[in-house]
Structure formats: C-alpha cells, structure tokens
Amino acid sequence: MAAILQSLGRTVIAGLVILILLVLIASSVSGIAPAMGHAWGAFFMRWLHVLSGVMWIGLLWYFNFVQIPTMPL
Fold first, then answer.
1. C-alpha distance from residue 52 to each of 23, 31, 35 (Å)
2. Who contacts 5 (Cβ-Cβ below 8 Å, separation ≥6)?
3. Which of 33, 47, 62, 69 has the most CB atoms in a 10 Å sphere around its CB?
4. pTM for the predicted model, two decimal places
C-alpha cells in the first residue's frame, strides 16, 4: 500500500480510482443516474467548488509558511 504513495503517477491514479468508486457508491445509494438529473450536476459543482477552496487555502499556507522563510532577502 505504501508503494502507491511513493510515485506521483500512482498516487494520482489511486485518487481517481477512489473518486470514481465514491461517485458510483453515492449514485447507487441516492438512486440518481450519473448521466441524468440536475441534482447530480449540483453535487458535482459543489464538490468541485469545495475542492478548489481547499486547494487554494493549501497553496496560501504553503507559500506563506514554507516558501517565504526560505526566500533570500
């Protein structure tokens, strides 16, 4: 299992596989067909919005607390 996280390519592929599995599980539990319905589109856009926000905050923290102290004056 740890070998998956040692390579960027394997990590991205594992993340996509987990995402697809979660989407399929969520669609089967809620009864929404993946290709139909306004609710599915709203779910996807909300998920994309939250993911973008988390990545934005993560980048801000990275640049402020990791990069700035190591930059030359």
1. 18, 27, 23
2. 11, 14
3. 47
4. 0.44
